[in-house]
Amino acid sequence: MKAWRVHELGQPRDVLTFEDVPDLEPKPGELLVKVLSAAANFPDVLLCRGEYQIKPPLPFTPGVELCGEVVGLGEGVTEFAVGDRVIGMPSLPNGGFAELAVMSSATAFPAPEALDDAEASALSIGYQTGWFALHRRTQIQPGETLLVQAAAGGVGSAAVQLGKAAGAKVIGVVGGPEKAAYTRELGADLVIDRHSEDFVQAVKDFTDGRGADVVFDPVGGDSYTKSTKCIAFEGRIIVIGFASGTIPSPGLNHALIKNYSIIGLHWGLYNAYNPAAIRECHNELTRMATAGEIKPMISERLGLTDVADGIARLGEGTTVGRLAFLPGR
């Protein structure tokens, strides 16, 4: 089979190579899937650089999220059958940027029929992260104002749609006019281009000085610091990650004075500590997709041979929206 491999760590464009590798075999409890689509995620960039919390042994195939067709079952797998269409995270070091991948049956989900392969491949990580952030960790309420940093990115775009579906007024912060146009199409009520606008003042103006009730922050760094300047009284800042590369040091005295909460979310830990909550979340996302309340917007549908360039552009911050790689293209 064909697969992208990383033999040494570095920038994606430099270290990803397209190779012939032996076909995979599922171990007990695993599914062997033909990859129908693999969505690009920022963790794929970090994996190539060796900066992700998971460090698979070299060489490895990145690609942390996919939609696939089950073509083989490992011993003990009874909840899926050959021919089923599934989504979820493949088992590293054999990720989704390949013709075949393996997945744990415990963390695979039926693909929603309402979504095509590319859309379904982008549902697991971003939308589950967004759902847990907005509904389990911050309990967003109808009529509240949600500020989404990096709103055109993978998890940010999901948060915009989920916030609108929850009845919130959504402000999206992006970098550049193309990303702003994409975020408006997602349904954001206000889109702020941080390259040309002061988002702190824009949030205050939009909320009549109150500020945002919930801040969804996968960026960290200066974005987090500025978010604290436009958070509402009794607001909640949900920390998702640090795409800026800078981990902020929050001023707890400021949180005390303004009565706001700083809340962390490591979505992946729910697989270990509360897998039933992950299943419940998937069932709700499937319902929402069927009802037309959410739908991943895929801005680029690329072939498998385009992985190195696509992941490199994602890491450079020049992509707009979600990228999906379809081996059949």
Q: Could you name the CATH class of the largest domain?
A: Alpha Beta
CATH topology-level name of the largest domain: Quinone Oxidoreductase, Chain A, domain 1
Order of helices and strands: EHEEHEEEHHEHEHEHEHEHEHHEHE
Provide mean pLDDT, rounded. 95
The major sheet is characterized as:
6 strands, mixed
Number of helices: 12
Task: Please tell me about this protein's structure.
The chain is an alpha/beta fold and 329 residues long. It has 2 domains: 2-123 and 296-326, Quinone Oxidoreductase, Chain A, domain 1 (Alpha-Beta Complex), CATH 3.90.180.10; 126-268, Rossmann fold. It contains 12 helices and 14 strands. It has helices at residues 12-15, 42-49, 117-121, 124-137, 154-165, 177-186, 199-206, 221-227, 252-258, 270-273, 275-290, 307-316; strands at 2-6, 16-20, 30-39, 66-73, 85-90, 100-110, 145-149, 169-174, 190-193, 212-217, 231-239, 261-264, 298-303, 322-326. Strands 3, 4, 5, 6, 13 and 14 form a 6-stranded mixed sheet that branches. Strands 9-8-7-10-11-12 form a 6-stranded parallel sheet, with helices on both faces. Helix 2 crosses helix 12 (307-316), helix 4 crosses helix 5 (154-165) and helix 4 (124-137) packs across helix 11. The longest helix is centred in the last third of the chain and has 16 residues, at 275-290. 51% of the residues are buried. It comes from Rhodococcus jostii. InterPro entries: ADH-like_C, ADH-like_N, ER, GroES-like_sf, NAD(P)-bd_dom_sf, Quin_OxRdtase/zeta-crystal_CS, Zn-ADH-like_protein. Residues 11-325 form the Enoyl reductase (ER) domain.
